Amino acid sequence: MQDLRISLLDRCNFRCPYCMPEAEFNEDYQFLTRNERLTHDEIFRVASIAVRLGVTKLRITGGEPLLDKKVVSLISRLSALEGLEDLALTTNGVLLAPIADKLSDAGLHRVTISLDSVDKQVFKVMSGNRGDLDKVWEGIAAAEKAGLSPIKINVVVQRGVNDHNILETLERFRGTRHIVRLIEFMDVGNRNGWSIDKVVASKDVLELIQARWPVRSVDKNYPGEVARRYQYLDGKGEIGFISSVTEPFCGSCSRARLSADGTLFTCLFATQGTSLRDTLRDGSADEVIVDILTRIWANREDRYSELRELDSDERPLMNKIEMYRMGG
Ligand code: SAM
Ligand code: SF4
Q1: Residue 169 contacts by C-beta under 8 Å, 6 or more apart in sequence?
Q2: Which domains, ranges and CATH numbers included, belong to the chain?
Q3: Atom of ligand 1 nearest to the CA of 154
Q4: Which ligand 2 atom is at minimum distance from the Cα of 63?
Q5: Is residue 316 pLDDT above 50, yes or no?
Q6: Quick check: CB of 324 below 6 Å from ligand 2?
Q7: How far is the centre of ligand 2, averaged over its atoms, from the C-alpha of 12 (Å)?
Q8: pTM for the whole thing?
Q9: CA torsion angle for 197, 202, 203, 209 (degrees, to 10)?
């Protein structure tokens, strides 16, 4: 395990239909209570043990991590961990502008900002009518000024929703040094109405881009990187593709995810994880947690993306965990 993603909370100020559709996540929905969520001390303890065990990359995510009012102090504790090489945060960007400087001063290295379309109307729909695109632009500008780079921009591509203006979105970022990552709409969870015909395969998106701005493929930054990288031949920057539907990358995956309620998952498409919460709360020594983490990683056999390729009667029945819970 090299890379640990930590979901701070399961709540969000957006209702992106591919992640937390409003029809399901409304006032009747039971989000985790404060007591059910890990405290920052508990999160810090798991992270520090993981780093001791060899994790070099941490990402704070959610839900929307910037809804956590104490996120800056958690970042400053995590950034001091010896051996940590990369500390990143994924956000929808709306709350970023006022705290970008503070996050940077606290030791955050970089941010990934989700922005599915630069078209106001499309953006609005894809945020479940909650997002304010101007605020996201302010967030991106503030992150750049604060040095939280390289800034990555996550774009989930959905057929019939934002695939018609991918080029427009890319154009806005060409020459800015921000790296747009085009993500295939994934069948995480069970509530987002996923079907294969809503997925636009990365190779089709690549073809569309090649026809407008020729690109060349470039090597991975590190083994286990899930995005396939390309550079524009005219020097206007880099883009990436995350194609877990059409090109599963399970074999090289080195990620684990800690959900807001303290469950550790070794696969984004997992049906079950291992809860650390009771162990964190029953006075167990760090060695017990070291043992659990080591065992979970050694025994993992998730390869859901690959299994997806099997015929439905060969595939295990799956009740997958939602993305907002597990952390994207
Ligand atoms: N709220 C923050 C945000 O949106 O950046 C962080 C959490 S969000 C779950 C992390 C990433 O997961 C986002 O970039 C989002 O677009 C992506 N995501 C959520 N549901 C997805 C899905 N069904 N397929 C592909 N990506 C998804
Ligand atoms: Fe919220 Fe991020 Fe999920 Fe959108 S993708 S609903 S912003 S957690």
Answers
A1: 115, 116, 117, 118, 119, 155, 162, 180
A2: 3-326 (3.20.20.70)
A3: 14
A4: 8
A5: no
A6: yes
A7: 6
A8: 0.92
A9: 120
